[in-house]
Amino acid sequence: MATAVSETEAHRAGKGAQPIYEVPAIPQHVDELLALPPDQLRRLYETASVPRLDAIRGPLKGRMLAWPSVSGPLATLLRTLASSDRFPWRGKSFSPKADGRGEGINRVFSDRFTLFRFETFVGPSRAGAFDAVQLDYDNPHNPFFIRAIKDEIRELRPGLYLGQAWLKTPSKESLVLYFGLEG
Question: Total structural domains in the chain?
């Protein structure tokens, strides 16, 4: 289990140094991410790398992982549902383009039923001072409530991605959930 290094130990590392956090071990498969709480997923996300757009291609298996604002029995229930093969979201399919951009779509219920197209590009993360692959749903074919979702992903290891879904409202952007993708 990841733990924070004490502020005293961080202070010894240098005046004004921030507490240093251990990063959880990187899982081998997306289903292993289901066991991690939101704070550990956040640390993994912060230390992950920016994937190359041309490396993200084809159908990736997806799992909803954690909802940071939900805890207790409801969080357990949501994780149980998300880990079930009956959960409707199957993942995302990606198609890189030659101009440093790409596109994709979500797969639901089966690999043949797709909804909610998005465009991809590398840009600043909403989670910190680093970049991430942005999944932009703001296109006229998506319903208004989907257009307000701003996903982003970072690479934990080749073929394993950790994502964050943000909801944009007129006043702020809020982290709604973590998801994982595996190719």
Answer: 1
Helix or strand holding residue 175 (H, E): strand 173-182
Q: Is residue 34 part of a domain?
A: yes
Cα 118 to Cα 37, 72, 156, distances in angstroms: 27, 33, 22
Identify any residues that bridge with 151 across adjacent strands, giving them in sequence order. Answer: 135, 165
CA distances from 179 to 39, 67, 131 (A): 14, 9, 17
For residues 63 and 33, the answer to whether their CB atoms sit within 8 Å is yes
N-to-C CA span, the chain: 26
In a domain, 16, yes or no: no
Give the C-alpha separation, 48 to 24, whole Å: 11
pTM equals 0.84
| CATH number, position 90 | 2.40.128
Whole-angstrom distance, CA of residue 144 vs CA of residue 130:
28
pLDDT surpassing 70 at residue 21: no
At 102-124, the pLDDT tens digits run: 999 999 998 889 999 999 999 99
Structural domain span for residue 115: 28-182
For residues 89 and 108, the answer to whether their CB atoms sit within 8 Å is yes
The answer to whether the beta carbons of residues 111 and 58 sit under 8 Å apart is no
